[in-house]
Amino acid sequence: MGPVVRAGLVVAASLVLAAASAVADGIRAQPPAALESLAGTWEGAAQTPDGEAVLKAVFTVVDGKLSGVIESSLGPIAVGTAMLADAKLTIAFEYQGSPGTLTGTVQGSRIEGVWAVMDASGTFALSRRDERASDPISGDWEAEASVAGEVMPFSMSLRLSGEIVTGEISSAAGAVSITSGSWRDGVLALAFPYLAGEPVTMSGALKDGRLSGTVDYNRSEAVGTFSAGRKR
User: Fold this and answer.
1) Where do the domains of the chain lie, and which CATH numbers do they carry?
2) What share of the chain is helix, strand, coil (3-state, %, to 5)?
3) Which residues contact 18 (CB under 8 A, 6 or more apart)?
4) Is the pTM of this model over 0.85?
């Protein structure tokens, strides 16, 4: 083996060791999962002797204690005690009068592991539900409308419950409540009164994080467009 080849191997080995060290440092630098990080809604499934059971877990953390309910297609499961150490989550629960456990590993937005109730056991997996995906409307929005050649800035505070949208519309002229609103099949529809009670309706869709659509003032006396983005 010539000196050039040996030198090349030494350099390659050094690069491999450096890369491995960097990966290890990155892993060590990652903070361990905290119990508070589990608060929220998780969805997934468990494999059972009777087939797959759909799961939906809603966890809350108060004073360092996790509680909540795991809704399943086989019935509700109330969380008893929970412990999280080194990304290992253990939840004790009672199912139809029998004690059980969920033991899994927390990996970011996913929990995978094994459930056990008496002599029965199986695997389960839960993924954190994207709240923004299930409710892309609730929150505060900065907007502007272009009607009859005039551009008017305004803001919207929207709240979604099922398909019903409530909230307020605010502008330099003041604030009014939304009298009717809906979010259905990706379409937002709002109605509210203007300064002297003139009816205003808005209809729009969400694309690339922005709401945009049409505005109708006083039963088509004037029509225009609007665009809105979330407040930063």
Assistant:
1) 35-129 (2.40.128.120), 132-230 (2.40.128.120)
2) 15, 60, 25
3) none
4) no
